[in-house]
Amino acid sequence: MTRRLLLSVPLLAAAPKTFGAWRDPPVKPVTVPVRIVIDTHAALRSEQTARFWNRLWPQAARDLASGGVHVETHVGDGEVRRSAGGRPIFVGLDRTVLNLVITGQIPMLWDRARALSGVTTRVEGFHICLVALNYAHGHQVPYLSVNTCLHEILHALLGDIFENRPGGLHGAAREFRTDWYATLLWLFGDGKYLRESAQTYIDRLRWEVASRS
């Protein structure tokens, strides 16, 4: 991104707010159930949890709402334990919702010394967005560095959670696509495509739940 383009972003962001006719008409929001699980095993510092509740999560929830995605939130405690082989063991999750697990750092088996801020995946039927507060951040640079919580939730809503993470250019392209949609929410409140994808995700989640019962 050039310096000129970066400096022009605030002007582009202000335009839809100034000219209301540019915005889509009001739509019925898609409701996504999210269980926020605080990892008590991580011994998070008070300033870390305060930053999550005061900045990271409100920013992500607000951006989703601006695009017509309502987050139905429930909060509970849980743990991210480690097996003898280093595999993470999750406690306190709910199979019927998207679990946003707040911890200190990503388990080494998944992180592989990359200092990841988040991972989105399915484990034993649980849908998990794992956010590491040691590295998580709010919006920084449009299209390149966005709110970690929003980024990981979008990986679920865009359907990436049902696939193995690709490597190489394909993997980098998927990350950029996720940041692209996050930026559309952040700067423009544009969630037209996301609402459709989010509804598809919810339908598939419900199908998985029903197939187990």
What can you see in these coordinates?
This protein is α/β, with parallel strands linked by helices and 213 residues long. It has one domain (29-212): Collagenase (Catalytic Domain). The chain is built from 6 helices and 6 strands. It has helices at residues 3-18, 46-66, 108-111, 148-157, 168-188, 192-212, and strands spanning 30-39, 69-82, 88-91, 98-103, 118-123, 126-132. Strands 3-2-1-4-6-5 form a 6-stranded mixed beta sheet. Helix 4 (148-157) packs across helix 5 (168-188). The longest helix has 21 residues, at 46-66. It is globular and about 50 Å long.
Q: How would you classify the helix and strand content by structural class?
A: alpha/beta
How many helices does DSSP assign? 6
CATH hierarchy: architecture: 3-Layer(aba) Sandwich
* Biggest beta sheet attributes: 6 strands, mixed
Backbone shape = globular
What is the number of E strands? 6
Q: Assign a percent range to the helix content.
A: 40-55%
Question: Could you spell the SSE succession in H and E letters?
Answer: HEHEEEHEEHHH
